[in-house]
Amino acid sequence: MSQSKYEITPTVEASMGVALRGCDELLVQAEFMQKLARSEATGVPLRIKLGLDPTAPDIHLGHTVVLNKMRQLQDLGHTVIFLIGDFTSMIGDPSGRNSTRPPLTREQIEANANTYYAQASLVLDPQKTEIRYNSEWSDPLGARGMIQLASRYTVARMMERDDFTKRYRAGEPISVHEFLYPLMQGYDSVALKSDLELGGTDQKFNLLVGRELQREYGQEPQCILTMPLLEGTDGVDKMSKSKNNYIGISEAPESMFGKLMSISDTLMWKYFELLSFRSLDEIAALKAEIDAGRNPRDAKVMLGQEIVARFHSPSAAEGALAAFEARFRDGAVPEDMPEMTVAGAPLGVLKVLREANLVASGAEAQRNIEQGGVRINGAKVEDKGLQLAAGIYVMQVGKRKFARVTVV
After folding, report:
1. Pair 88, 52 in one domain
2. φ, ψ for residue 401 (rounded to 5)?
3. Where in the cell is it found (predicted)?
4. What are phi and psi of 363, to 5 degrees?
5. 289 within some domain
6. Do 209 and 183 form a contact (C-beta atoms < 8 A)?
7. Suppose 374 and one of 135, 140, 278, 381 were both cysteines; which one would form an S-S bond, judging by CB atoms 3.0 to 4.6 Å apart?
């Protein structure tokens, strides 16, 4: 076994522990350990990159899974680069899709990008964050530079990507411009001389392209750290605005708290691990209490208050809890109400309202939602496309109609 170039100190090991908390995969761990050791020995911080395409104007809690990891590494003294993919957004990321995604217009991208960094600054330390736009180096490439970049990666390697392979075998179209997306994301790492790039598990292929392109350009290859994808409030699909199952970090405190209270007791623990700043030991102790008979609602309240306090204020968190509880006391919610089970999770809220006999038709359900008259677990429902995962829900229409519905 060869000797390490830099000493692995207890501080380096502790930093590695921070990096590994909640992560899905860190490639290559031995290389990253040496990067950390070199940084400690030389005093030169690592360059840690996260790229987000401004495909929607709001950042949601799913995005903060990787932002939280960035903040943890930032607090260790490393340089974090928040990269806004204004150029790559015009291509459209095909990751995990079975069809070509229409690219955004420049106007849409600029409108969305204007809000991104302000929201990310609620997680990252803005004084210690380098903000960049990949149009800085992508636009100047021009046609000649794009062709030269494309010559550094093969079609065979590109077709190793799972979603491309599936679409090709199914005879579904793959546009040539989709191959450019991982190439351009990889070139971002070259331009920024990245030491570590973060992303969701669905970004692993793109992150590895960056590692290979750095080798092609004579740079030390970056390590990659992937974080799990956070399921949305439906408990099924990853959190996404397009799926209408998201919790935006700029949402009003009551809405944010209500949505967090609506997630299932099982999903709650994944939210704790990926979103909470509590130690893993604290979370394990809390889970043991719940397993021993403590009401899971208590833990969910703690999570909801922590998240609302982070993105608003401690007083806003207290206010959101008080408003939530006010709906369930003083007779606001009756102790006795019809109970029923509806099968087929996840189920659309309109269907569940009909099955629970709270409305006579889908049109009535839509009208009540539009008028703000529908609540689930005390939180006002604003999304007519909301999907309910398996769980128990107190559903309310107007002031007097209630049902406790178990979705299975």
Report:
1. yes
2. -95, 120
3. Cytoplasm
4. -65, -40
5. yes
6. yes
7. 381
* C-beta of residue 406 within 8 angstroms of C-beta of residue 339: yes
Residue 4, in any domain of the structure: no
- Whether residue 2 lies inside any domain: the answer is no
Kindly report the CATH number assigned to the domain that includes residue 266. 1.10.240.10
d(CA 395, CA 408): 15
Model-level pTM? 0.72
Strands 347-348 and 47-52: unpaired
Residue 240 host element (H or E): none
Q: What is the pLDDT of residue 338?
A: 82
Report the distance separating Cα 132 and Cα 117, nearest Å.
Answer: 10
Q: Which pLDDT tens digit goes with each residue over 70-104? A: 999 999 999 999 998 888 777 766 555 544 556 67
Domain check: are 15 and 158 in the same one? yes
Which of 35-49, 251-265, 352-366 holds the top average pLDDT? 35-49
| Domain termination site, one of 291, 326, 361 | 326
In this structure, of 11-20, 33-42, 245-254, the range with the lowest mean pLDDT score is 245-254
pLDDT in tens, 290-301: 999 989 889 999
If one counts the domains in the chain, the total is: 3
What range does the domain containing 54 cover? Answer: 10-227
Structure tokens, 244: 């209408």
Query: What does the pLDDT average to over 241-264?
Result: 86
Q: Which residues are annotated as a binding site?
A: 241
Beta strands (DSSP E) in 59-195 are 79-84, 129-133
Diameter over CA atoms, the chain: 74
Cis check for the bond before 28: say yes or no (omega within 30 of 0): yes
Q: Which CATH number belongs to the domain containing residue 160 in this structure?
A: 3.40.50.620
If asked whether residues 269 and 180 sit together in one domain, one would say no
Annotated binding site for ATP: 241
Looking at residue 223, the DSSP 8-state letter turns out to be E
Query: CB pairs under 8 A, 24+ apart, for 355-360?
Result: 355/405, 356/395, 356/403, 356/405, 357/403, 358/395, 358/396, 358/397, 358/401, 358/403, 359/397
d(CA 357, CA 69): 45
